[in-house]
Amino acid sequence: MTAAALALDGVSVRFGGLAAVTDVTTTFAAGSLTGLIGPNGAGKTTLLNAISGFTVVLSGRIAMDAIDLTPLSAAERARLGVMRGFQTVRLLERETVFDNVLVGCERLPQPHLLGQLLALPDQRRCRARDLAATETALRDLGLLPIAHRRVDELPFASRRLTEIARLLVVRPTVLLLDEPAAGLDTRDRRALVERIRAYHEAGGLTTIIIEHDIELVRQLCARCVALDMGRIIAIGTPSEVLSGQAVQQAYFGARSGA
Amino acid sequence: MRLVPDIVLRHRPLERATGARRGALFGVIALAAIWLAIPIFFGQYTVFIAAQVMIYAVATLGLDIVYGRAGQLSLAHASFFGLGAYAAALSGPLGIPLWIQPALVLFLAIGGGIIVAVPTLRLSGLRLALVTLLFGELFDWAIDHSLALTGGSQGMTVAPITIGPFNSQGTLDAYLLASALALGATLLTRQLARSQLGRRMLAVRDSELASASLGVPIVHTKITAFILSAVFAGAAGWVYAYVVGFVSPTTFNLFASVYFLVAVILGGAGRIVGVWLGAAYIVLVPELFNLVGYPNLFPVLGGGVLIAIALFLPGGLVEGAELVLAELGRYRR
Prior knowledge:
The complex is a heterodimer. By secondary structure, chain A is of the alpha/beta class. Chain A contains 10 helices and 10 strands. Chain B has one domain (about 40-330): Orthogonal Bundle (ABC transporter involved in vitamin B12 uptake, BtuC). Helix content of chain B is about 75%, strand content about 0%.
């Protein structure tokens, strides 16, 4: 699968009188890995919601290669491979880790309803394929030992990794992660970084990561976009962006060196 | 068309533990033995009751699809059961030939399922339950007010299906007919649980937000769940009328809908074994109270049992059985 570029053109989101995201225009190159940073309330999650279709945009256009995503629902965008994680992990609480990841196979082609219910040969193959994909994703994230545990009895780190496995079980075209490392210890964090990098190096994936852990952004991302008050205030390599005056001001409220 | 290349399938997916598989095999053999033993060792009455348990199990499997699996609370389920039953009952006077009837029941159930599903697109939980309740009452009202055709609350008798030596109201024949239906419905449900549709239902039940983020078509899934549930209930009702030979609105009223719900919750939502246990409960226990001469005790006991289950065993009887088995397993080791 070839990677797709994601283009935002004048995207604005408003909640009543509050301008959450204002006139954001930028392009995320095919196969790129971009960090999205900014202080609390900068509009990072709102922007991710706008891209994934969970928030209606007031104006502007979001396109994945030639496909205009703007009029599509969240589910339709997901079917095109725009996959997102949630800051507060959203799992199927009553199901096992395995079943949670299995649901991520939704995007793979499946036989029609009668074929599914009558267990026609295609259904058997598709099920075997889905089970195999799920097992691989679980193994990659070290979740196999707890595959048959219910997610609501697991610690937060395992739940986070379960959600990420669900996102990665079928290779996304655009991957949107909202603070994926939050709540993970150093070891899990390192494993996660390695996994995301490995997925990236295999190609075909355009990723945007919201992350407060600046070190993690430095390690992973070649490019960084900083938001404040709903506007882009800096774009560049992580070092450039972090040393820039606007970012310093947004984070620390004063000019650097002052 | 092949959706999956063969290469993928050489990889062995995560299998269930062999212990669980052996347990399932043992269960199937035990069930087959019971199924054979009932008509051999027991009298007509028991066989007839067993046939009813199987028919109710099919209808309950239907409610479990929409409520247990897809999470949409429906209080109109008995109406779908009634839809099938009255389709059979009215086919006699209306002169509808037998071979058309299954297609007719299917058609009615799909139509009814879609109609009841429409409010789910906007509502959930108790508000949805109230709207489905309305549909249930509407069905009751329609039966009561088409006196000339249905006999209203007096009910109507249904002539049996007779094909050669087969008579759907003969005890053994009824048992076999109900068994065939129950086997088919159980296998379909099992397959549902293993299919994409089954996964979609769990996703919609547990988190619509997560469902949307994965591309699950929520509306489509809910409507499909309602249709399947209506088809199960309709088929069960159709067989019910031909086996029992009599239909009246009380079998299909709000209380019946509630009892189906009790069966699902008591047995264990989303679990085939649980649904069977629940269906056995709602058929056998009232019958037992009838036998000992206190038929009015059932609702009292039923309420108590339901409260106890809700408090102590939220996963239903099947979860209780699993806990006991796990405990025994630990003891043996």
